[in-house]
C-alpha cells in the first residue's frame, strides 16, 4: 500500500521529519512520482491488535528496583492503550553502558515480536542505539521509544561515569597483563632456540 509521508507518519505515531529522514537514509521503501511526491510503500498492513510488542525496562542499580516495576507498568499501560499484543516483558538491572546485559541479549535474539518498547532511549542503551535500530529494521522489527527526551538523573550519570572508568581501567590492566604474557612467551621461544 502506498501512502504519503504525512499519512505514514500519523499512522506510525512519528514525526513527518523522522519519516523524511528514514526515506533519505533508505530505511523505508518508497516511490517518487514524476511530480516529486514521495509515496511510502507500507508493507505493514497489520492492525494494532496484530502488532506484537516486547517491553524492555532497565535501571542502573538495584537501589532503583522500585522504579523498575513502575517503568514496566507504564510500558504495559502504553502498549495496552495502543492496542498492541504484549508477548514479552523484560526487566533488567544494569548500566546502560554495559554491553553484556543478558536479558537484552536474549530479547534481541528472539524474532517473535514486531516492536521493542522502551520508555526512554537511555533505558535501552546509552550508546549505539542507531546500530541496533538498523539491525532490528533488517529483521522487520523496530525500536519504539515513548519519550525520546533525555531525563538523566545525577545518580544515573554518576553510575555511568563509574562504569566507564571501571571498564577502561580493566582494559588497561588487561593490556598490561597481555604485554607481560607476550614478553614471557617471546623469552621462552628464544630460550628454546
Write structural notes for this entry:
- The protein is α/β, with parallel strands linked by helices and 193 residues long.
- Among the domains are: 2-41; 57-147, 3-Layer(aba) Sandwich (Rossmann fold).
- 49% of the residues lie in helices and 20% in strands.
- It is built from seven helices and seven strands; from the N terminus they run E-H-H-E-E-E-H-E-H-E-H-H-E-H.
- The chain has helices at 5-11, 16-24, 65-82, 102-109, 121-124, 129-138, 154-192, and strands at residues 2-4, 30-32, 38-41, 52-59, 85-93, 115-120, 142-147.
- Helix 1 (5-11) packs across helix 2 (16-24).
How would you sum up this structure in a few lines?
Among the domains are: 2-41; 57-147, Resolvase, N-terminal catalytic domain (Rossmann fold, 3-Layer(aba) Sandwich). 49% of the residues lie in helices and 20% in strands.
Q: Shape from CA axes?
A: extended
Task: Supply the number of helical segments.
Answer: 7
CATH topology of the domain at 57-147: Rossmann fold
Helix content: 40-55%
Helix/strand structural class: alpha/beta
Mean residue pLDDT: 82
The tally of strands reads 7
Regions with pLDDT < 50 over 5+ consecutive residues? none
**What's the level 1 CATH class of the domain at 57-147?**
Alpha Beta
CATH architecture of the domain at 57-147: 3-Layer(aba) Sandwich
The Cα radius of gyration reads 22 Å
How far do the termini sit from each other?
73 Å
Described by strand count, sense and barrel closure, the largest sheet is:
4 strands, parallel
User: Going by CATH, what is the homologous superfamily of the domain at 57-147?
Assistant: Resolvase, N-terminal catalytic domain
As a percent range, the share of strand residues is 15-25%
Strand order of the largest sheet: 5-4-6-7
* H/E element sequence: EHHEEEHEHEHHEH
Amino acid at each position: 500500500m502506498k501512502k504519503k509521508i504525512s499519512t505514514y507518519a500519523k499512522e506510525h505515531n512519528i514525526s513527518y521529519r523522522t519519516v523524511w529522514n528514514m526515506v533519505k537514509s533508505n530505511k523505508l521503501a518508497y516511490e517518487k512520482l514524476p511530480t516529486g511526491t514521495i509515496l511510502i510503500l507500507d508493507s505493514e498492513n497489520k492492525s494494532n491488535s496484530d502488532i506484537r510488542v516486547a517491553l524492555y525496562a532497565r535501571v542502573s542499580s538495584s537501589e532503583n528496583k522500585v522504579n523498575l516495576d513502575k517503568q514496566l507498568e507504564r510500558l504495559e499501560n502504553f502498549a495496552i492503550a495502543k492496542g498492541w499484543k504484549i508477548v514479552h516483558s523484560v526487566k533488567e538491572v544494569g548500566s546502560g553502558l554495559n554491553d553484556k546485559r543478558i536479558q537484552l541479549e536474549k530479547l534481541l535474539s528472539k524474532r517473535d515480536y514486531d516492536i521493542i518498547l522502551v520508555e526512554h532511549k537511555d533505558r535501552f542503551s546509552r550508546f549505539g542505539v542507531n546500530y541496533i535500530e538498523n539491525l532490528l529494521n533488517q529483521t522487520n522489527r523496530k525500536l519504539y521509544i515513548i519519550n525520546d527526551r533525555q531525563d538523566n538523573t545525577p545518580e544515573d550519570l554518576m553510575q555511568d561515569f563509574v562504569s566507564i572508568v571501571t571498564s577502561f581501567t580493566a582494559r588497561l590492566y588487561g593490556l598490561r597483563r597481555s604485554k607481560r604474557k607476550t614478553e614471557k612467551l617471546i623469552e621462552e621461544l628464544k630460550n628454546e632456540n
